[in-house]
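Quick sanity check, YoaK family protein:
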Amino acid sequence: MTTSATTPTPPPAAPDPARPATAGPGPSGRGARRARAALLIALTFAAGVIDIVGFLGMHQVFTANMTGNIVLFGMAAGEGSGAELARCGAATVAFALGLLLGFRMSGRGDPERVWPPAVTRALAADLVLQLLFLAGWIATGARPEGGTLLALVALSSAAMGVQTAAARTLAADGITTTFVTGTLTSMMGALAIGSAAASGLRTAVIAALAAGAAAGGALMGPAPIVAGALGPAIVLAVMLAALPLHRRRLA
């Protein structure tokens, strides 16, 4: 009688304690990067809408693009326009304070993590500021004046400062979501040396800002309240979509 030898089945490998655990199925490293890129593009679209709401609805002040806003500040100083100086000055100071708050909330970031929870917490502060703006926007019938106008300019600008800091913390190919001069510069600089790295994302971000401005411009005439509500709605959607990415790490 012959007996067949059986090879013992090796026990399952113990989990590596050095490897961070992930909760449930989720995107791969490449898929996670794409998901993050989509969220950044959505935030950029929202910034385009918000800038147009400020420019058309709050006496031509930018609340997301501080380069244009500072130019308007200088022009107002040259013309001696006190009201415009106040609006542009309020926007610039509030944006700077929003940056400070956003960087403090989002921390130094984690280059290995797709979307750190601290970034979502910073976006929560952005959302609160935008909702306060929206409440005032609705209360004034989308026609703020005087002190209320300055307060709404400051709220919107602070929100955009927080959003800029949160996006910058991600260190995602230099994307800021609120202005694209640096993004365009990085893209052209890379192309000049024959590198197309991140050119697709950068192009999409530039297009998203223009598309958001177009959407805001189209809504400001017939539905200014909807235009004012679109930004916070997008930020809320981005926050919810980012939750599954909190524990994902880039491959």
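Posting the structure with no commentary besides this: The chain has a mean pLDDT of 86.
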